[in-house]
Automatic annotation (TrEMBL), chain B:
The lineage of its organism: Eukaryota, Metazoa, Hemichordata, Enteropneusta, Harrimaniidae. PANTHER family: PROTEIN ECT2 (PTHR16777:SF2). SMART domains: BRCT, RhoGEF. InterPro entries: BRCT_dom, BRCT_dom_sf, DBL_dom_sf, DH_dom, Ect2, ECT2_BRCT0, GDS_CDC24_CS. It comes from Saccoglossus kowalevskii. The gene is LOC100374097. Residues 394-576 form the DH domain. This is Protein ECT2-like. Residues 110-184, 216-292 form the BRCT domain. Residues 295-350 are annotated as: Disordered. Gene3D superfamilies: BRCT domain (3.40.50.10190), Dbl homology (DH) domain (1.20.900.10). Pfam families: BRCT, ECT2_BRCT0, PTCB-BRCT, RhoGEF.
């Protein structure tokens, strides 16, 4: 195993089914709302201000690599935390989170790899309800289901977010950073000081 | 006191004026390991004496006498030395006997030849006795000394990292050694086969932070700890900011824009690049080139996030938003089923309203220090032309993103080559940073990939310069797919090894570690590590497929490009 850089730098990889909203989530976080103009997220490094201190995040998308396991493995290497995404309007994507993505990241990065569960396109929930599209609404993922899954796999947190409206986007990355800090006792006190004020 | 070997030839007056006679002084010297045998091999007249004085007189007329001393100290030695007689140490005799060479002609006492052919210059020694001692030792070992530094000097023995001599030696690549080097060489003087420039003597090269005491400012605790450890490994010490012994104040110029206190003029105030640069070149870098300068206070208030004013404001804002968030999560927590939310006091509509509130931009406190994608490195204009007053079709939009991301990608490949590969291949002050075969392992396929995508990018930008929906993008991709086929598999298959090589070198070679540190802070790298940049080629093809699939969806079924785009997707998929 390669030596890890000893600095407060956290590599976060966003995984999940194709078209479940990974790229938009990342672009929305990095490009501050102008993200929906782009179909591709290019890996980048950003500073994330946690109040008392700043953590450097290295962000990665696996978009387009859904069919290439060997490529994904290269992207997963040295990841510090994962954001496992599903589409709140497609129950199947949550199933895949359970049976494909979570087992995959755990087998590649260890059972204890910190992750958070994120339901993307939360705005659709609203729309489907408002328009009484019952048929489609049946496919909505219920919070109970997610809660159970999160508890079973030991997710650090779970969120629903809407990248389209920038809702909870920052929180997704804040939580995944904290999930990582939680595993690093040496850093935790230093970086979270003042976070819970 | 007897003549052992008297069968010396009749003097040839034309060639040599005097016969060389060797006088072994003291019993101690006579018992020197291997000396007697060596003397026999040399076929000279050898005499033995307790103090050598009885051979001084006739030395003037008949013989050129070489006095051999085991110890270059003591009254007898001093006496003969003062009278300018030739004096040698046993190792010289052994060496000459061994290599069947005549004795060297020496004017100064010569004990051994460990430093023969070396030209040495000193700098930074104040103590006269100390420097005299060093000069003598160098002479005893066959080295010569120059008062002034020149290109002919082979080694600089320094006691400081300041001064012109040190600076010049570093820039000329002349090895800079510590005085321990001289002493250590002297301690191995009995070894008649060695040399002061043997590999294991190179550990006495002067470390970059010799006699430097560094203080660090603006770094995270972890980074500072790492830097302090490195400082120690590189021959320096560290002290808290403000310590009197401090010689260099190293500042993280990304976070610190202003000095909170006045420093006395004796301390060098330098940017962190000085630190890593020194390690990379294995010498203390010129402080004047890395001097920390304050950012003009009039503009930092508005532009930089690092100032106390801006920071506290930001912290307050952050606190507010966290407070708001916790309030939100009470009501908006995903644990509450959505249907209930409607009936609760805080309705969904008002909530989403607050999310859209501009004063509340959720991501306002992320700072992107540098653009994540370097564009300046590329010479051709990267932004696709967007003529005004023309509606951009969805298809064109995707084509533009294809070009934009392609340009960024080419820029990254360019960065890998210009910032990493080429400097590593070029001559570095202090020798290569990593072995040539490792450079090949790491960067082998990058130039080929770069070539292909450079052309692809050019073709795409040409197409977009005069875009219409019936132009074939698929055809361009297809045109270059065979090039990709040649370049990629090799790279992707060996990526694991590439990465391992980078990590291995990072651990093994401190100068390479420093090099990576410096590169990473260059704006064109966007603070990505070399490994992070190198993985881009692995990720590019899937992204390209994604964009092409999008393009396919937006391509009219009647368009001739439809088939081409389909084909190009298949072709790119084949490469992966």
């Amino acid at each position: 195993m390669a030596a890890r850089s000893p600095f407060a730098r956290c590599k976060i990889v966003v995984v999940g089914d194709q078209f479940c909203g990974k790229t938009l989530l990342l672009n929305s976080f990095v490009n501050k709302g102008k993200g929906h103009e782009f179909a591709i997220f290019e890996s980048c490094v950003v500073d994330f201000d946690l109040g008392s201190s700043t953590i450097t995040l290295s962000l990665h998308d696996i978009s387009g690599q859904e069919d290439y396991e060997s490529m994904r493995n290269l992207t997963y290497a040295d990841a510090d935390a994962f954001v496992v995404c599903y589409d709140v309007s497609k129950r199947e994507t949550l199933k895949n989170a359970e049976f494909k993505w979570l087992p995959e990241i755990r087998s590649k990065c260890g059972e204890d790899i910190p992750f958070i569960l994120v339901g993307c396109k939360a705005d659709l929930r609203q729309i489907l309800h408002n328009n009484d599209l019952h048929k489609k609404a049946l496919d909505l993922v219920s919070i109970k289901e997610v809660e159970r899954l999160a508890a079973r796999f030991g997710a650090y947190a779970f969120f629903e977010c809407s990248a389209k409206y920038g809702r909870n986007v920052r929180q997704v990355f804040e939580a995944s950073t904290k999930a990582w800090l939680d595993t690093r006792e040496d850093l935790y006190a230093y970086f979270t000081e003042g976070l819970y004020c | 006191m007897s003549v052992i070997n008297s069968d010396s030839n009749v003097k040839d007056i034309n060639q040599t004026a005097l016969e060389t006679r060797i006088c072994v002084v003291s019993d101690d010297t006579a018992n020197y390991d291997g000396l007697n045998q060596a003397l026999q091999e040399l076929e000279c007249t050898v005499v033995y004496s307790t103090n050598g004085l009885e051979y001084i007189d006739d030395a003037a007329d008949k013989y050129d006498t070489v006095f051999v001393f085991n110890n270059f100290e003591g009254r007898d030695y001093d006496c003969l030395h003062k009278m300018d007689h030739r004096i040698m140490g046993p190792p010289v005799i052994l060496k000459c006997a061994n290599s069947k060479e005549p004795l060297p002609y020496n004017t100064r006492p010569l004990y051994c030849t460990l430093m023969s052919q070396l030209i040495i210059c000193f700098t930074g020694f104040r103590n006269k006795a100390e420097i005299t001692r060093l000069v003598n030792l160098v002479h005893h070992m066959g080295g010569s000394i120059r008062k002034d530094f020149s290109t002919r000097v082979t080694h600089l023995v320094a006691n400081t990292t300041n001064g012109n001599k040190y600076r010049t030696a570093v820039s000329l690549g002349t090895p800079v050694m510590t005085e321990q080097w001289v002493h250590q060489a002297w301690s191995t003087r009995h070894d008649s086969t060695g040399s002061a420039i043997d590999e294991d003597m190179m550990q006495y090269k002067m470390m970059p932070f010799f006699c430097c005491c560094l203080s660090f400012m603006g770094f995270s605790d972890e980074e500072q700890k790492h830097m302090e450890e490195v400082t120690q490994m590189q021959g320096g010490s560290s002290a808290p900011v403000g310590d009197k012994s401090c010689t260099h104040l190293v500042i993280d110029d990304v976070t610190v824009k202003d000095l909170p206190f006045e420093c006395n003029g004796k301390i060098h105030i330098v940017k962190s690049e000085w630190f890593w640069g020194s390690i990379q070149m294995a010498a203390c870098a010129d402080e004047t080139m890395y001097r920390f300068t304050k950012v003009d206070s009039s503009d930092h208030k508005t532009s930089t996030p690092g100032t106390p004013v801006a920071r506290s404001r930001k912290r307050r804002r952050l606190r507010e938003s966290i407070a708001a968030l916790s309030k939100e999560s009470e009501h908006e927590s995903p644990h509450v089923p959505p249907r209930k939310r409607r009936s609760s006091d805080m309705g969904m509509l008002s909530m989403s309203g607050s999310f859209l509130d501009a004063s509340h931009t959720p991501d306002s406190s992320i700072t992107l220090r540098t653009a994540c994608t370097p564009q300046s490195v590329d010479t051709a204009p990267t932004t696709p032309p967007a003529p005004p007053k023309r509606i951009i079709s969805k298809r064109e939009h995707i084509a533009m993103e294809l070009l934009q991301t392609e340009s960024n990608y080419v820029g990254i490949l360019h960065t890998i080559i210009k910032v990493f590969k080429e400097p590593l291949e070029q001559n570095q002050t202090g020798g290569p940073l990593i072995p040539a075969e490792d450079i090949k392992t790491i960067f082998g396929s990058i130039p080929i990939i770069y070539e292909v995508h450079m052309k692809l990018k050019e073709d795409l930008s040409e197409l977009l310069a005069d875009y219409s929906d019936d132009k074939s993008i698929g055809e361009i991709i297809l045109r270059h797919s065979s090039g990709m086929m040649k370049a990629y598999p090799q790279f992707v298959n060996y990526f694991e090894m590439t990465k391992e090589t980078v990590n291995k070198c990072d651990k093994q070679f401190p100068r390479f570690h420093a090099f990576l540190k410096i590169c990473q802070s260059k704006p064109e790298c966007g603070r990505q590590t070399l490994c992070e940049l190198l993985i881009r080629p692995v990720q590019r093809l899937p992204s390209m497929i994604l964009l092409l699939q999008d393009l396919l969806k937006r391509t009219d079924s009647s368009s001739p490009d439809l088939e081409q785009v389909e084909k190009s997707i298949t072709a790119v998929k084949e490469v992966t």
